[in-house]
Amino acid sequence: MLPVVALVGRPNVGKSTLFNRLTRTRDALVADFPGLTRDRKYGTAKYEGLQFIVVDTGGISGDEQGIDVVMAEQSLLAIIEADVVLFLVDARTGMTAADQGIAEHLRKQEKPVYVVANKVDGIDGDSESADFFALGLGDVNQIAAAHGRGVTQLLQSALAPIAEQFPDMHIPEESDEELQEIDADEQLANLQALPIKLAIVGKPNVGKSTLTNRILGEERVVVYDEPGTTRDSIFIPMERDGREYILIDTAGVRRRRNISEAIEKFSIVKTLQAIEESNVVLFVVDAQEGITDQDLSLLGFILNAGRSLVVAVNKWDGLNKDVKEEIKRELDRRLGFIDFARLHFISALHGTGVGHLFESVQEAYASATKRVNTSMLTRIMDMAQEDHQPPVVRGRRVKMKYAHAGGYNPPLIVIHGNQLKDLPDSYKRYLMNYFRKSLKVMGTPIKIEFREGA
Ligand code: GDP
Ligand code: GDP
After folding, report:
1. 4-169 in CATH: which number?
2. Can you spell out the DSSP letters for 29-98?
3. Residue 53 CA to ligand 1 centre (angstroms)
4. What positions does the entry give for GTP 2 binding (predicted)?
5. Which segments of the chain belong to CATH 3.40.50.300?
6. In which residue ranges of the chain is CATH 3.30.300.20 found?
7. What is the pLDDT of residues 369-425, one digit of tens each?
8. From the annotation, which residues make up the binding site for GTP?
9. Which CATH superfamily is domain 184-369 in?
10. Tens of pLDDT along 418-445?
11. Which among 192, 201, 362, 374 would be 20 to 30 A from 20, CA to CA?
12. Is the CB of 13 within 6 Å of ligand 1?
Protein backbone atom coordinates (compact mmCIF):
# COMPACT_ATOMS: atom_id res chain seq x y z
CA MET A 1 0.00 0.00 0.00
CA LEU A 2 1.17 3.49 -0.82
CA PRO A 3 0.26 6.44 1.40
CA VAL A 4 -1.95 9.19 -0.01
CA VAL A 5 -0.75 12.77 0.23
CA ALA A 6 -3.30 15.53 -0.43
CA LEU A 7 -2.27 19.02 -1.55
CA VAL A 8 -4.70 21.57 -0.16
CA GLY A 9 -4.83 25.35 -0.39
CA ARG A 10 -6.55 28.26 -2.00
CA PRO A 11 -6.05 28.87 -5.74
CA ASN A 12 -2.65 30.09 -6.95
CA VAL A 13 -0.52 29.04 -4.03
CA GLY A 14 1.40 26.54 -6.19
CA LYS A 15 -0.39 23.21 -5.77
CA SER A 16 -0.16 22.21 -9.44
CA THR A 17 3.46 23.30 -9.56
CA LEU A 18 4.26 21.01 -6.64
CA PHE A 19 2.09 18.23 -8.08
CA ASN A 20 3.94 18.35 -11.40
CA ARG A 21 7.29 18.33 -9.67
CA LEU A 22 6.35 15.29 -7.59
CA THR A 23 4.82 13.28 -10.42
CA ARG A 24 7.12 14.62 -13.15
CA THR A 25 4.24 14.46 -15.55
CA ARG A 26 1.53 16.64 -16.89
CA ASP A 27 -0.85 13.86 -17.73
CA ALA A 28 -2.33 13.27 -14.33
CA LEU A 29 -5.53 11.37 -13.81
CA VAL A 30 -8.17 14.07 -13.65
CA ALA A 31 -11.34 13.34 -11.74
CA ASP A 32 -14.07 14.24 -14.14
CA PHE A 33 -16.63 11.58 -13.34
CA PRO A 34 -20.28 12.55 -13.13
CA GLY A 35 -21.12 13.50 -9.58
CA LEU A 36 -17.55 14.18 -8.60
CA THR A 37 -15.63 17.41 -8.68
CA ARG A 38 -13.75 18.09 -11.88
CA ASP A 39 -10.52 19.69 -10.91
CA ARG A 40 -9.05 17.07 -8.64
CA LYS A 41 -5.89 15.45 -10.02
CA TYR A 42 -4.28 12.17 -9.05
CA GLY A 43 -0.84 10.80 -9.76
CA THR A 44 1.89 8.56 -8.43
CA ALA A 45 4.79 10.51 -7.03
CA LYS A 46 8.32 9.14 -7.13
CA TYR A 47 10.68 11.52 -5.44
CA GLU A 48 14.10 11.02 -3.85
CA GLY A 49 13.53 7.36 -3.02
CA LEU A 50 9.93 7.85 -1.86
CA GLN A 51 6.74 6.91 -3.64
CA PHE A 52 3.17 7.76 -2.79
CA ILE A 53 -0.15 8.72 -4.33
CA VAL A 54 -0.58 12.46 -4.57
CA VAL A 55 -3.88 14.28 -4.96
CA ASP A 56 -4.16 17.91 -5.99
CA THR A 57 -7.49 18.81 -4.43
CA GLY A 58 -8.10 21.82 -6.65
CA GLY A 59 -8.70 25.19 -5.14
CA ILE A 60 -10.77 25.66 -2.04
CA SER A 61 -11.08 29.10 -0.60
CA GLY A 62 -12.47 28.26 2.81
CA ASP A 63 -15.36 30.72 2.60
CA GLU A 64 -17.57 29.03 0.02
CA GLN A 65 -21.26 29.82 -0.19
CA GLY A 66 -24.21 28.04 -1.86
CA ILE A 67 -23.25 25.71 -4.67
CA ASP A 68 -19.57 26.28 -3.93
CA VAL A 69 -20.05 24.59 -0.60
CA VAL A 70 -20.96 21.37 -2.38
CA MET A 71 -17.98 21.70 -4.68
CA ALA A 72 -15.72 22.39 -1.76
CA GLU A 73 -17.13 19.42 0.13
CA GLN A 74 -16.20 17.24 -2.81
CA SER A 75 -12.70 18.59 -2.58
CA LEU A 76 -12.68 17.99 1.12
CA LEU A 77 -13.46 14.33 0.52
CA ALA A 78 -9.93 14.07 -0.81
CA ILE A 79 -8.72 15.18 2.60
CA ILE A 80 -10.70 12.43 4.28
CA GLU A 81 -9.05 9.87 2.00
CA ALA A 82 -5.56 11.21 2.62
CA ASP A 83 -2.96 9.95 5.07
CA VAL A 84 -1.10 13.24 5.13
CA VAL A 85 -2.24 16.73 4.18
CA LEU A 86 0.13 19.36 2.83
CA PHE A 87 -1.54 22.71 3.35
CA LEU A 88 0.03 25.19 0.94
CA VAL A 89 0.08 28.92 1.54
CA ASP A 90 1.76 31.71 -0.40
CA ALA A 91 4.74 33.26 1.40
CA ARG A 92 4.69 36.20 -0.97
CA THR A 93 1.11 37.33 -0.41
CA GLY A 94 1.09 36.46 3.27
CA MET A 95 -1.85 35.18 5.28
CA THR A 96 -5.37 35.58 3.87
CA ALA A 97 -8.85 35.01 5.27
CA ALA A 98 -9.18 32.03 2.96
CA ASP A 99 -6.07 30.44 4.50
CA GLN A 100 -7.65 30.85 7.91
CA GLY A 101 -10.91 29.32 6.72
CA ILE A 102 -9.12 26.26 5.39
CA ALA A 103 -7.01 26.00 8.55
CA GLU A 104 -10.13 26.01 10.66
CA HIS A 105 -11.50 23.09 8.69
CA LEU A 106 -8.22 21.19 8.82
CA ARG A 107 -7.91 21.60 12.56
CA LYS A 108 -11.16 19.67 12.93
CA GLN A 109 -9.81 16.69 10.98
CA GLU A 110 -7.85 14.03 12.70
CA LYS A 111 -5.13 14.12 10.09
CA PRO A 112 -1.47 14.99 10.13
CA VAL A 113 -1.36 18.44 8.50
CA TYR A 114 1.83 20.25 7.44
CA VAL A 115 1.74 23.95 6.69
CA VAL A 116 3.86 24.66 3.62
CA ALA A 117 4.85 28.22 2.79
CA ASN A 118 5.58 28.20 -0.93
CA LYS A 119 7.44 30.67 -3.17
CA VAL A 120 10.22 31.48 -0.69
CA ASP A 121 12.67 31.94 -3.58
CA GLY A 122 14.24 35.39 -3.66
CA ILE A 123 12.55 36.58 -0.45
CA ASP A 124 13.37 36.36 3.23
CA GLY A 125 11.61 33.05 3.85
CA ASP A 126 11.97 33.07 7.61
CA SER A 127 10.28 36.39 8.17
CA GLU A 128 7.66 36.03 5.42
CA SER A 129 6.51 32.62 6.61
CA ALA A 130 6.54 33.38 10.33
CA ASP A 131 2.96 34.74 10.12
CA PHE A 132 1.57 31.33 9.21
CA PHE A 133 2.49 29.95 12.58
CA ALA A 134 -0.68 31.69 13.72
CA LEU A 135 -2.74 29.16 11.72
CA GLY A 136 -2.30 26.92 14.72
CA LEU A 137 -1.15 23.92 12.71
CA GLY A 138 2.42 23.75 13.91
CA ASP A 139 5.72 24.48 12.20
CA VAL A 140 5.84 26.20 8.84
CA ASN A 141 7.81 24.34 6.16
CA GLN A 142 9.40 26.59 3.57
CA ILE A 143 9.62 25.52 -0.05
CA ALA A 144 9.93 26.89 -3.57
CA ALA A 145 7.93 24.35 -5.56
CA ALA A 146 8.95 25.90 -8.86
CA HIS A 147 12.64 25.29 -8.09
CA GLY A 148 12.40 22.22 -5.88
CA ARG A 149 13.89 23.93 -2.89
CA GLY A 150 12.89 22.39 0.46
CA VAL A 151 10.73 19.71 -1.14
CA THR A 152 12.84 16.71 -0.13
CA GLN A 153 13.05 17.93 3.44
CA LEU A 154 9.30 18.55 3.54
CA LEU A 155 8.52 15.04 2.31
CA GLN A 156 10.92 13.49 4.77
CA SER A 157 9.33 15.23 7.72
CA ALA A 158 5.78 14.61 6.50
CA LEU A 159 6.24 10.92 5.64
CA ALA A 160 8.62 9.78 8.38
CA PRO A 161 5.87 9.42 11.01
CA ILE A 162 3.89 6.99 8.81
CA ALA A 163 6.88 5.09 7.41
CA GLU A 164 6.18 2.01 9.51
CA GLN A 165 2.57 1.86 8.40
CA PHE A 166 3.56 2.09 4.71
CA PRO A 167 6.80 0.15 4.14
CA ASP A 168 6.18 0.17 0.36
CA MET A 169 6.72 3.91 0.16
CA HIS A 170 10.50 3.41 0.12
CA ILE A 171 11.68 2.68 -3.42
CA PRO A 172 14.21 -0.16 -3.18
CA GLU A 173 17.73 0.85 -4.11
CA GLU A 174 19.23 -0.57 -7.27
CA SER A 175 21.53 -3.47 -6.58
CA ASP A 176 24.24 -4.84 -8.88
CA GLU A 177 23.17 -7.32 -11.53
CA GLU A 178 24.07 -10.55 -9.77
CA LEU A 179 22.20 -9.49 -6.66
CA GLN A 180 19.37 -8.21 -8.79
CA GLU A 181 18.81 -11.59 -10.38
CA ILE A 182 18.85 -13.26 -6.96
CA ASP A 183 16.42 -10.62 -5.70
CA ALA A 184 14.21 -11.27 -8.71
CA ASP A 185 14.15 -15.00 -7.93
CA GLU A 186 13.25 -14.28 -4.36
CA GLN A 187 10.47 -11.97 -5.49
CA LEU A 188 9.21 -14.70 -7.80
CA ALA A 189 9.18 -17.31 -5.04
CA ASN A 190 7.19 -14.90 -2.86
CA LEU A 191 4.70 -14.22 -5.64
CA GLN A 192 4.20 -17.92 -6.31
CA ALA A 193 3.48 -18.66 -2.67
CA LEU A 194 0.62 -16.17 -2.54
CA PRO A 195 -2.91 -16.08 -3.98
CA ILE A 196 -3.41 -14.02 -7.16
CA LYS A 197 -4.72 -10.59 -6.26
CA LEU A 198 -7.26 -9.64 -8.88
CA ALA A 199 -8.65 -6.09 -8.84
CA ILE A 200 -11.93 -5.38 -10.61
CA VAL A 201 -11.61 -1.80 -11.78
CA GLY A 202 -13.54 0.66 -13.94
CA LYS A 203 -15.63 3.81 -13.90
CA PRO A 204 -18.91 3.99 -12.00
CA ASN A 205 -21.81 2.07 -13.59
CA VAL A 206 -19.84 -0.05 -16.04
CA GLY A 207 -21.00 -3.18 -14.21
CA LYS A 208 -18.24 -3.94 -11.70
CA SER A 209 -20.52 -4.97 -8.88
CA THR A 210 -22.78 -6.99 -11.18
CA LEU A 211 -19.67 -8.80 -12.41
CA THR A 212 -18.27 -9.28 -8.92
CA ASN A 213 -21.55 -10.77 -7.75
CA ARG A 214 -21.68 -12.97 -10.81
CA ILE A 215 -18.16 -14.28 -10.14
CA LEU A 216 -18.84 -14.77 -6.45
CA GLY A 217 -22.13 -16.49 -7.18
CA GLU A 218 -20.25 -19.11 -9.13
CA GLU A 219 -17.33 -19.53 -6.79
CA ARG A 220 -16.73 -20.77 -3.33
CA VAL A 221 -16.09 -17.70 -1.24
CA VAL A 222 -13.83 -18.49 1.64
CA VAL A 223 -14.50 -15.55 3.93
CA TYR A 224 -15.11 -11.83 3.70
CA ASP A 225 -12.67 -9.36 5.15
CA GLU A 226 -14.33 -6.07 6.03
CA PRO A 227 -12.12 -3.03 5.55
CA GLY A 228 -11.51 -0.31 8.09
CA THR A 229 -12.26 2.88 6.21
CA THR A 230 -14.39 4.02 3.31
CA ARG A 231 -11.48 4.43 0.94
CA ASP A 232 -10.45 0.79 1.31
CA SER A 233 -11.50 -1.89 -1.12
CA ILE A 234 -12.98 -5.15 0.08
CA PHE A 235 -10.68 -8.18 -0.14
CA ILE A 236 -12.52 -11.41 -0.89
CA PRO A 237 -10.60 -14.69 -0.85
CA MET A 238 -11.96 -17.25 -3.32
CA GLU A 239 -10.95 -20.38 -5.19
CA ARG A 240 -11.17 -21.20 -8.85
CA ASP A 241 -9.85 -24.26 -10.70
CA GLY A 242 -7.77 -25.17 -7.68
CA ARG A 243 -6.09 -21.75 -7.55
CA GLU A 244 -6.44 -19.27 -4.75
CA TYR A 245 -7.43 -15.71 -5.55
CA ILE A 246 -8.09 -12.58 -3.62
CA LEU A 247 -10.69 -10.51 -5.38
CA ILE A 248 -10.20 -6.80 -4.76
CA ASP A 249 -13.66 -5.32 -4.97
CA THR A 250 -13.57 -1.57 -5.61
CA ALA A 251 -17.32 -1.36 -6.21
CA GLY A 252 -18.20 -2.03 -2.60
CA VAL A 253 -20.55 -4.91 -3.40
CA ARG A 254 -20.95 -5.86 0.18
CA ARG A 255 -21.91 -2.48 1.54
CA ARG A 256 -23.89 -1.13 -1.38
CA ARG A 257 -27.63 -1.14 -0.95
CA ASN A 258 -28.65 0.29 -4.32
CA ILE A 259 -27.35 1.37 -7.69
CA SER A 260 -27.37 5.07 -6.93
CA GLU A 261 -24.75 4.45 -4.29
CA ALA A 262 -22.33 3.43 -7.05
CA ILE A 263 -21.12 6.95 -7.70
CA GLU A 264 -21.01 7.91 -4.07
CA LYS A 265 -18.95 4.85 -3.31
CA PHE A 266 -16.66 5.38 -6.27
CA SER A 267 -13.32 6.67 -5.18
CA ILE A 268 -10.31 7.26 -7.35
CA VAL A 269 -7.95 6.81 -4.43
CA LYS A 270 -9.56 3.45 -3.76
CA THR A 271 -9.19 2.52 -7.42
CA LEU A 272 -5.53 3.56 -7.55
CA GLN A 273 -4.73 1.71 -4.32
CA ALA A 274 -6.45 -1.41 -5.65
CA ILE A 275 -4.39 -1.26 -8.84
CA GLU A 276 -1.17 -0.84 -6.84
CA GLU A 277 -2.16 -3.69 -4.57
CA SER A 278 -3.11 -6.16 -7.31
CA ASN A 279 -1.20 -8.61 -9.49
CA VAL A 280 -3.77 -8.60 -12.27
CA VAL A 281 -6.37 -5.96 -13.11
CA LEU A 282 -9.68 -6.93 -14.64
CA PHE A 283 -10.67 -3.68 -16.30
CA VAL A 284 -14.35 -3.29 -17.06
CA VAL A 285 -15.65 -0.98 -19.79
CA ASP A 286 -19.22 -0.36 -20.90
CA ALA A 287 -19.65 -1.45 -24.54
CA GLN A 288 -22.76 0.64 -24.90
CA GLU A 289 -20.95 3.80 -23.78
CA GLY A 290 -17.68 3.16 -25.62
CA ILE A 291 -14.16 4.05 -24.49
CA THR A 292 -14.07 7.40 -22.71
CA ASP A 293 -11.13 9.61 -21.75
CA GLN A 294 -11.56 8.42 -18.18
CA ASP A 295 -11.13 4.83 -19.29
CA LEU A 296 -7.94 5.84 -21.07
CA SER A 297 -6.61 7.67 -17.97
CA LEU A 298 -7.29 4.65 -15.79
CA LEU A 299 -5.68 2.32 -18.34
CA GLY A 300 -2.66 4.62 -18.49
CA PHE A 301 -2.33 4.33 -14.75
CA ILE A 302 -2.59 0.53 -14.88
CA LEU A 303 0.07 0.43 -17.59
CA ASN A 304 2.41 2.69 -15.61
CA ALA A 305 1.96 0.49 -12.57
CA GLY A 306 3.04 -2.46 -14.75
CA ARG A 307 0.06 -4.59 -13.84
CA SER A 308 -1.15 -7.55 -15.84
CA LEU A 309 -4.37 -6.72 -17.57
CA VAL A 310 -7.51 -8.35 -18.91
CA VAL A 311 -10.24 -6.15 -20.39
CA ALA A 312 -13.92 -7.07 -20.01
CA VAL A 313 -16.11 -5.26 -22.51
CA ASN A 314 -19.37 -5.50 -20.60
CA LYS A 315 -23.05 -5.04 -21.54
CA TRP A 316 -22.46 -6.94 -24.80
CA ASP A 317 -26.09 -8.09 -24.64
CA GLY A 318 -28.88 -6.52 -26.66
CA LEU A 319 -26.59 -5.02 -29.32
CA ASN A 320 -27.15 -5.73 -32.99
CA LYS A 321 -24.46 -7.04 -35.29
CA ASP A 322 -23.59 -3.72 -36.94
CA VAL A 323 -23.24 -1.95 -33.62
CA LYS A 324 -21.00 -4.74 -32.34
CA GLU A 325 -18.74 -4.44 -35.38
CA GLU A 326 -18.57 -0.69 -34.94
CA ILE A 327 -17.64 -1.04 -31.25
CA LYS A 328 -14.92 -3.57 -32.09
CA ARG A 329 -13.39 -1.17 -34.61
CA GLU A 330 -13.41 1.61 -32.05
CA LEU A 331 -11.75 -0.62 -29.46
CA ASP A 332 -9.04 -1.58 -31.95
CA ARG A 333 -8.41 2.04 -32.72
CA ARG A 334 -8.28 3.36 -29.17
CA LEU A 335 -6.75 0.47 -27.27
CA GLY A 336 -3.67 -0.05 -29.45
CA PHE A 337 -1.42 0.99 -26.56
CA ILE A 338 -2.52 -2.02 -24.51
CA ASP A 339 -2.38 -4.54 -27.34
CA PHE A 340 -0.80 -7.07 -24.97
CA ALA A 341 -4.10 -7.46 -23.11
CA ARG A 342 -6.87 -9.87 -24.06
CA LEU A 343 -10.36 -8.47 -24.62
CA HIS A 344 -13.47 -10.39 -23.58
CA PHE A 345 -16.97 -9.48 -24.67
CA ILE A 346 -19.26 -10.30 -21.79
CA SER A 347 -22.60 -9.70 -20.19
CA ALA A 348 -22.23 -9.58 -16.44
CA LEU A 349 -26.01 -9.32 -16.22
CA HIS A 350 -26.67 -12.59 -18.05
CA GLY A 351 -23.37 -14.28 -17.25
CA THR A 352 -22.33 -14.68 -20.87
CA GLY A 353 -18.57 -14.95 -21.32
CA VAL A 354 -17.80 -14.48 -17.62
CA GLY A 355 -16.39 -18.00 -17.19
CA HIS A 356 -13.69 -17.46 -19.80
CA LEU A 357 -12.31 -14.34 -18.10
CA PHE A 358 -10.36 -16.47 -15.67
CA GLU A 359 -8.53 -18.28 -18.46
CA SER A 360 -7.02 -14.95 -19.47
CA VAL A 361 -6.40 -13.90 -15.89
CA GLN A 362 -4.44 -17.14 -15.34
CA GLU A 363 -2.55 -16.66 -18.56
CA ALA A 364 -1.68 -13.06 -17.73
CA TYR A 365 -0.44 -13.98 -14.28
CA ALA A 366 1.54 -16.95 -15.59
CA SER A 367 3.17 -14.63 -18.15
CA ALA A 368 3.99 -12.04 -15.53
CA THR A 369 5.65 -14.62 -13.27
CA LYS A 370 7.36 -16.84 -15.81
CA ARG A 371 10.97 -17.33 -14.75
CA VAL A 372 13.61 -16.23 -17.22
CA ASN A 373 17.39 -16.43 -16.83
CA THR A 374 20.45 -14.63 -18.09
CA SER A 375 21.39 -17.08 -20.82
CA MET A 376 17.87 -17.26 -22.22
CA LEU A 377 17.41 -13.49 -22.23
CA THR A 378 20.85 -12.87 -23.69
CA ARG A 379 20.18 -15.39 -26.46
CA ILE A 380 16.91 -13.69 -27.39
CA MET A 381 18.60 -10.30 -27.26
CA ASP A 382 21.37 -11.57 -29.58
CA MET A 383 18.83 -12.94 -32.04
CA ALA A 384 16.98 -9.64 -32.05
CA GLN A 385 20.28 -7.87 -32.65
CA GLU A 386 21.17 -10.18 -35.55
CA ASP A 387 17.78 -9.88 -37.22
CA HIS A 388 17.88 -6.13 -37.01
CA GLN A 389 21.06 -4.31 -35.96
CA PRO A 390 20.88 -1.34 -33.63
CA PRO A 391 21.71 1.94 -35.39
CA VAL A 392 25.10 3.60 -35.74
CA VAL A 393 25.19 6.83 -33.76
CA ARG A 394 28.05 9.33 -34.13
CA GLY A 395 30.09 6.77 -36.03
CA ARG A 396 29.70 4.00 -33.47
CA ARG A 397 27.24 1.16 -33.47
CA VAL A 398 25.11 0.85 -30.36
CA LYS A 399 26.00 -2.51 -28.84
CA MET A 400 23.91 -4.58 -26.46
CA LYS A 401 26.06 -7.09 -24.56
CA TYR A 402 23.88 -9.15 -22.27
CA ALA A 403 20.52 -9.24 -20.53
CA HIS A 404 19.28 -10.51 -17.20
CA ALA A 405 16.08 -10.59 -15.17
CA GLY A 406 15.47 -7.67 -12.85
CA GLY A 407 12.03 -8.56 -11.52
CA TYR A 408 8.61 -10.02 -12.22
CA ASN A 409 4.98 -8.90 -12.40
CA PRO A 410 5.82 -7.11 -14.63
CA PRO A 411 8.82 -8.91 -16.11
CA LEU A 412 11.76 -6.53 -16.03
CA ILE A 413 14.60 -7.19 -18.46
CA VAL A 414 17.86 -5.39 -17.78
CA ILE A 415 20.11 -4.92 -20.81
CA HIS A 416 23.77 -3.95 -20.51
CA GLY A 417 25.84 -2.49 -23.31
CA ASN A 418 27.45 0.57 -24.87
CA GLN A 419 25.79 3.82 -25.92
CA LEU A 420 22.39 2.40 -25.02
CA LYS A 421 21.02 5.85 -24.30
CA ASP A 422 21.24 6.47 -28.04
CA LEU A 423 18.78 3.69 -28.85
CA PRO A 424 15.78 5.24 -30.60
CA ASP A 425 12.29 4.52 -29.26
CA SER A 426 11.45 2.60 -32.41
CA TYR A 427 14.26 0.14 -31.67
CA LYS A 428 13.13 -0.18 -28.05
CA ARG A 429 9.65 -1.04 -29.27
CA TYR A 430 11.11 -3.58 -31.69
CA LEU A 431 13.04 -5.21 -28.82
CA MET A 432 9.99 -5.24 -26.59
CA ASN A 433 7.94 -7.02 -29.25
CA TYR A 434 10.79 -9.42 -29.94
CA PHE A 435 11.00 -10.40 -26.28
CA ARG A 436 7.23 -10.62 -26.07
CA LYS A 437 7.03 -13.05 -28.98
CA SER A 438 10.06 -15.12 -28.01
CA LEU A 439 8.99 -15.48 -24.39
CA LYS A 440 5.36 -16.05 -25.43
CA VAL A 441 3.95 -13.70 -22.82
CA MET A 442 0.40 -12.43 -23.00
CA GLY A 443 -1.53 -10.13 -20.72
CA THR A 444 1.40 -8.42 -19.06
CA PRO A 445 3.49 -5.43 -20.06
CA ILE A 446 7.28 -6.02 -20.23
CA LYS A 447 9.69 -3.41 -18.94
CA ILE A 448 13.19 -3.04 -20.31
CA GLU A 449 15.88 -1.12 -18.47
CA PHE A 450 19.13 -0.13 -20.16
CA ARG A 451 22.41 0.06 -18.28
CA GLU A 452 25.61 1.50 -19.63
CA GLY A 453 28.70 -0.72 -19.50
CA ALA A 454 29.32 -4.43 -18.99
P1 GDP B 1 -2.44 26.35 -7.81
O2 GDP B 1 -3.61 27.15 -8.29
O3 GDP B 1 -2.39 26.30 -6.33
O4 GDP B 1 -2.36 24.99 -8.44
O5 GDP B 1 -1.10 27.17 -8.23
P6 GDP B 1 -0.11 26.99 -9.47
O7 GDP B 1 0.79 25.80 -9.28
O8 GDP B 1 -0.88 27.08 -10.72
O9 GDP B 1 0.83 28.27 -9.27
C10 GDP B 1 0.30 29.58 -9.28
C11 GDP B 1 1.41 30.54 -9.70
O12 GDP B 1 2.47 30.55 -8.75
C13 GDP B 1 2.03 30.17 -11.03
O14 GDP B 1 2.24 31.35 -11.77
C15 GDP B 1 3.36 29.55 -10.64
O16 GDP B 1 4.35 29.71 -11.63
C17 GDP B 1 3.72 30.31 -9.38
N18 GDP B 1 4.58 29.54 -8.48
C19 GDP B 1 4.40 28.26 -8.08
N20 GDP B 1 5.41 27.87 -7.29
C21 GDP B 1 6.27 28.91 -7.20
C22 GDP B 1 7.53 29.12 -6.51
O23 GDP B 1 8.08 28.25 -5.86
N24 GDP B 1 8.10 30.34 -6.64
C25 GDP B 1 7.53 31.34 -7.38
N26 GDP B 1 8.16 32.48 -7.43
N27 GDP B 1 6.37 31.16 -8.04
C28 GDP B 1 5.74 29.97 -7.95
P1 GDP C 1 -20.64 -0.48 -11.07
O2 GDP C 1 -20.92 0.90 -10.61
O3 GDP C 1 -19.48 -0.50 -12.03
O4 GDP C 1 -20.46 -1.46 -9.95
O5 GDP C 1 -21.91 -0.95 -11.95
P6 GDP C 1 -23.17 -1.86 -11.56
O7 GDP C 1 -22.77 -3.29 -11.45
O8 GDP C 1 -23.85 -1.26 -10.38
O9 GDP C 1 -24.05 -1.74 -12.87
C10 GDP C 1 -24.56 -0.49 -13.31
C11 GDP C 1 -25.81 -0.71 -14.14
O12 GDP C 1 -25.49 -1.44 -15.32
C13 GDP C 1 -26.87 -1.53 -13.41
O14 GDP C 1 -28.12 -1.00 -13.74
C15 GDP C 1 -26.69 -2.92 -13.98
O16 GDP C 1 -27.87 -3.68 -13.94
C17 GDP C 1 -26.28 -2.62 -15.40
N18 GDP C 1 -25.49 -3.72 -15.97
C19 GDP C 1 -24.41 -4.31 -15.41
N20 GDP C 1 -23.94 -5.30 -16.23
C21 GDP C 1 -24.74 -5.30 -17.33
C22 GDP C 1 -24.75 -6.07 -18.54
O23 GDP C 1 -23.96 -6.98 -18.76
N24 GDP C 1 -25.71 -5.76 -19.46
C25 GDP C 1 -26.60 -4.76 -19.25
N26 GDP C 1 -27.50 -4.55 -20.23
N27 GDP C 1 -26.62 -4.02 -18.13
C28 GDP C 1 -25.71 -4.27 -17.18
Report:
1. 3.40.50.300
2. EEE--TTS-SSEEEEEEEETTEEEEEEE-----S---THHHHHHHHHHHHHHH-SEEEEEEETTT---HH
3. 21
4. 202-209, 249-253, 314-317
5. 4-169, 184-369
6. 374-452
7. 999 989 999 999 999 999 999 988 888 888 899 999 999 999 999 999 988 988 998
8. 9-16, 56-60, 118-121, 202-209, 249-253, 314-317
9. P-loop containing nucleotide triphosphate hydrolases (3.40.50.300)
10. 889 889 989 999 999 999 999 999 999 9
11. 201
12. yes
